[in-house]
Design goal:
Number of domains of chain A: 2
CATH superfamily of the largest domain in chain A: NAD(P)-binding Rossmann-like Domain
CATH topology of the largest domain in chain A: Rossmann fold
CATH class of the largest domain in chain A: Alpha Beta
Largest sheet of chain A: 7 strands, mixed
Radius of gyration of chain A: 20 Å
Distance between the termini of chain A: 31 Å
Order of helices and strands of chain A: EHEEEEHEHEHEHEHEEHEHEHE
Helix content of chain A: 25-40%
Shape of chain A: globular
CATH architecture of the largest domain in chain A: 3-Layer(aba) Sandwich
Oligomer: homodimer
Strand content of chain A: 15-25%
Chain lengths: 327, 327
């Protein structure tokens, strides 16, 4: 498990843009589980961070100086390639223009951004929910889980929340989840899942791996889909083998599908996902909670809060430049 | 692990058919890994066998007395519901008519029957092989593996055999497999798979679970498909949890799909599968080895031979009534 002193902050001259570049300053910095993988020695989807490197991370930022023909001062953008810093020089590749008429700037890092699109693509493209099915979601009040639960309800499914506190489960109830299970206080998660999913789990939206995964695998319905979206519960033993019970017999007997998900494989679905989520939000059918913490210097604290499941909703860092923006 | 004295043979009067029934006598009895599941206390796809019950099993049989309008003496049929016995009264439901112009009678229990259809449906419907991909197959010289490997080659894939002896691997080479790995003599299966699959495993056709599965999961290519067809290596610890390393991070990082397969979910594909396999065989592009043992009394021995991976090809029991039939 990482600790606060794994990072240190450096001050430097604000960089200047070259031709076809612009300088942007962060309004909101995103705090995401995938960052755990980037500081691991194990192979991940992307190159790991070397000691001394800038931490990778996404942000919503404002263009403050531009030598790029397509961007001008005051433009708002969202990019995954900003880093844990206040200022960044960018070349305009692979970013999203933030349209505040669709949702507030910070939402482009949550329900209108990667977490929301992850929820939509994983549930629809891999899970393929059918009316009346039971969908169990771990980290149900997190950035991805909140959206996934509400999409599942919108599809006519029963949605079951798994979270780490009564406060989070209360929020999940408010979002429309039918039932909730507190995995930290449960004495027998296998039995509790059996009780709240009497016909078995048709879709398990797995944001966590670990004990929640294990109990879900013992309650699969015939033809179940298990979507491996995140493995945050393995944060503590990230570089060790994950030992425990395996469920190949259950996969065989239920003819279940266990599939790994990465949002970047679903670029074609982004426009539809964002449109669909914005539409739900406009109709008042999508609620969302964001956990703001102030100041770049608090990035390590915010990240550790997330790894310890102490955040309440999407975890963000708000910089001084976001002052006065709507929440 | 079951032992010979788990079974005993009973003699009884040969039953007589009632209206809409017929009496058949077995020519060949099928010996299959799924039978291990049926004598387990754990939940399987089908109801387990109680102590004192008839062991379930398939056969190719000859109708010797009929009160059924659609069957007459001398008809040959294949059915999964015959049982470990010489004679059975059947009602004609869910069986296949054996056409010896397509292949010899016993082939309807192997490449023209459930094992062949399993290989075809699992590989094509779940694995969806593409030209040039690498397909790793465990129990590669078994009833399912022999057919799967040759279909993979026919699709333009590299086929890698995993088996328990040099003799089996030699046969796999003869079938067209590109490379072979002996899992019993290997010191480091993970490294060996990496050597024979330098671009990773695109499809792992898993007939075994266990150590072969574990090593395959550490060599997945991006977008890999892992088809869980059988778990025979768990035969010894069938009623205990299967403990060991889990591979959720690998599934996530490779965006792999791990899916359980049961042939009965693919009834719609049977005609195409059988036609396609018969066609390969007729063109001389499908070789197949069958391991015959004589006499009903040897069913337990044949089954244990299979569980201990000592069979060479599809394991069958040939009864006295099959005398003189072509092999």
């Amino acid at each position: 498990m990482p600790e606060p002193n794994n990072w240190h902050m450096e001050k430097a001259q604000i960089p200047r843009p070259d031709t076809n570049q612009f300088l942007a300053r962060a309004l909101y910095l995103s705090v995401d589980p995938y960052m755990r993988g980037r500081i691991s020695a194990k192979q991940g989807y992307a190159k790991g961070v070397e000691i001394g490197d800038l931490m990778p991370g996404g942000a919503v930022a404002e263009v403050i100086e531009s030598k790029h023909p397509n961007f001008r001062e005051g433009d708002l953008i969202e990019t995954i390639q900003f880093g844990w810093q206040d200022y960044s020089v960018l070349n305009g590749d692979g970013l999203t223009r933030v349209d505040v008429s669709i949702g507030p700037a910070h939402a482009w890092l949550s329900y209108l951004g990667m977490p929301g699109i992850t929820a939509w693509c994983a549930l629809n493209n891999i899970g393929q929910p059918k009316f009346g099915e039971t969908v169990l979601i771990s980290a149900a009040s997190g950035a991805v889980g909140q959206v996934a639960g509400q999409i599942a309800k919108n599809k006519g499914c029963r949605a079951i929340a798994v979270a780490s506190s009564e406060e989070k489960l209360k929020w999940c109830k408010n979002l429309g989840y039918d039932r909730g299970v507190n995995y930290r206080t449960s004495n027998d998660l296998v039995r509790e899942f059996a009780e709240v999913c009497p016909n078995g789990i048709d879709i398990y939206f797995d944001n966590t791996a670990g004990i929640i995964h294990d109990a879900a695998m013992q309650n699969l319905a015939l033809g179940a889909r298990v979507i491996i979206v995140g493995t945050i519960s393995l944060a503590e033993k990230f570089d060790e083998p994950d030992m425990g019970e395996r469920f190949l017999r259950q996969i065989l007997v239920s003819r279940a599908k266990v599939q790994g998900f990465l949002v970047f494989d679903h670029l074609d679905s982004y426009p539809e996902a964002r449109r669909s989520i914005a539409n739900l939000h406009n109709k008042g059918e999508l609620k969302f909670k964001t956990d703001f913490m102030d100041g770049l210097e608090n990035m390590p604290a915010a990240f550790l809060k997330l790894l310890h499941a102490q955040n309440m909703g999407k975890q963000l860092i708000r910089t001084e430049f976001a002052e006065g923006l709507p929440e």
